[in-house]
């Protein structure tokens, strides 16, 4: 039986985990005998450390977003191979990654975050690591922490990224434009939206309590022309707050775990208001729903937003105008909607990997003629004491 490791980062719900789950579902639907394990290297190293890192990250982007944005641009989004930050990462986690591989003996590794990809690329250079590695990108751009030339396959979101990787020395044959991988449920129409006078708007992004959701909801409380469905996720405080308003045009929705149910929800609405996270945007683009951006977190969401605006795939809500007015200007204008759908279709045309082709690529990677190394006695001892 072949073993596959899928590697996001941290344990909090994120696009890295959603893409990981989408790829795991595709692999498990293959006619292959495989064991798939999703592993976060930081939790694997130290569970307490993972909790500290997650808490620090959430507090940082909410309390000091400008500082986080500067750090992201300086150490992650830009060339950063020689920075002290990267050297610290290498010292702390390189040996742990090597140990993980020796313990698990995988036949294939899929990275949905740049951090494990960077470590694996360096292991390929310094230690001659032979395990095939796939990068599955979760945003509409790639930061400089990702491993590139050393990585065996790249699942990229768009043609622009493919050209960037080619310019950086990656073999074109190893790059596939897949879009950001999402669950197959979102590629099916569960219900056709009816053309009715009263539009339905889905508001997402409330799960983590980030993204200025409270301010957004205050702005739509008195907007009586539309019906709003607010996806609260695990944010019970937000759910209860909206319920306490007892407003017929604003309905809170708790955590939706089923991809099928989420797909059905998308098909009931006429637009979505959200943040520019790669997975949520990809799901809405797949459903061909007009997308309105109300806020963006520092770091990758800021870069995503710049790409999406350039391609005409989203509408950014202005803070000094009524949200209701801005929704009307788009949803009631046939010319604006026609142009938007043309942009969405152009984006889809760039994706050159069908479902069947992606399955064939994954099957070929799984069956790559690579034989894992035998475990050392030290690693065998580690396996018996760590599970």
Key structural traits:
387 residues; alpha/beta; Rossmann fold; 2 domains; six-stranded parallel β-sheet; Diacylglyc_glucosyltr_N; Galactosyldiacylglycerol synthase; Glycosyltransf_28_UgtP
Description:
With 387 residues, this protein is of the alpha/beta class. The protein folds into two domains: 2-179 and 351-386, 3-Layer(aba) Sandwich (Rossmann fold); 185-349, 3-Layer(aba) Sandwich (Rossmann fold), CATH 3.40.50.2000. It has 16 helices and twelve strands. The chain has helices at residues 15-28, 41-45, 47-63, 65-77, 84-104, 114-126, 159-167, 213-220, 236-245, 259-268, 278-286, 300-310, 323-331, 334-350, 355-366, 377-386; strands at 2-7, 34-38, 108-111, 133-136, 153-156, 175-177, 200-203, 227-233, 250-254, 271-274, 291-293, 315-316. The strands form two sheets. It has a six-stranded parallel β-sheet, sandwiched between helices. A six-stranded parallel β-sheet has the order 9-8-7-10-11-12, sandwiched between helices. The two termini are 20 Å apart.
Largest sheet: 6 strands, parallel
Q: Report the structural category.
A: alpha/beta
- The first-level CATH class name of the largest domain: Alpha Beta
In sequence order, what are the helices and strands, one letter per element? EHEHHHHEHEEHEEHEHEHEHEHEHHHH
- The Rg value, from CA coordinates, equals 22 Å
Question: CATH homologous superfamily of the largest domain?
Answer: Response regulator
Q: State the CATH architecture of the largest domain.
A: 3-Layer(aba) Sandwich
Anisotropy-based shape: globular
- Average pLDDT across residues? 84
Q: How are the strands ordered across the major sheet?
A: 2-1-3-4-5-6
How many H/I helices? 16
Low-confidence runs: 377-387
% residues in beta strands: 5-15%
Please indicate the count of domains. Answer: 2
Helix content: 40-55%
